[in-house]
Prior knowledge:
This protein is mainly beta and 148 residues long. It has a single domain, classed as Jelly Rolls (Sandwich), CATH 2.60.120.10. 6% of the residues lie in helices and 41% in strands. It contains 1 helix and 12 strands. The strands form 3 sheets. It has a 5-stranded antiparallel sheet with strand order 1-9-6-11-4, with no helix packed on it. The radius of gyration is 15 Å and the shape is globular. It binds thymidine-5'-diphosphate.
Amino acid sequence: MFLKKPKMDFKSNSVFDCTLVEINTIKDLSGVITIVENEPSTPFEVKRIYYLYDVPGGQKRGEHAHKELQQFVFAARGSFEVVLDDNLNKRRFVLNKPNLALHIVPGIWRCLDNFSTGSVCMVLASHIYDEGDYIRNYQEFQILKKRG
Length: 148
Ligand code: TYD
């Protein structure tokens, strides 16, 4: 359950505002169920779900930031890693369990790599797709994070 809503400021958000969250899971001898419910399991209302798979070995994904979009990212199958960068600090997260999600706030550059064979990256997003919300140029990202 999310007791603390993250601040939503593109410029001041840091990699330390991004957190690993254990998703509610029910396990018995017949298997496991992991349950995500729109608020309170997520810190935002989910408007879009997409998933990434068949990523060739050695391939990187992401390499962009978002102005407003928040995401909840988890490995529905297999594993991959996420490097977050706020232009000051970097953090690397390993996502390797279907009940372990990474909450990414706006204003964070992200790169996904080290996808295991057959992995599935599931993303719950706070907004519908909008190319205008992307920052795809790292120099532009750095300028926007610095602007006072
Ligand atoms: P992108 O978000 O750049 O992928 P990744 O971060 O995984 O590397 O999206 C790749 C392409 O897919 C890009 O042309 C935009 C398109 N796309 C959509 O049309 N809708 C979506 O919901 C998403 C996530 C991507």
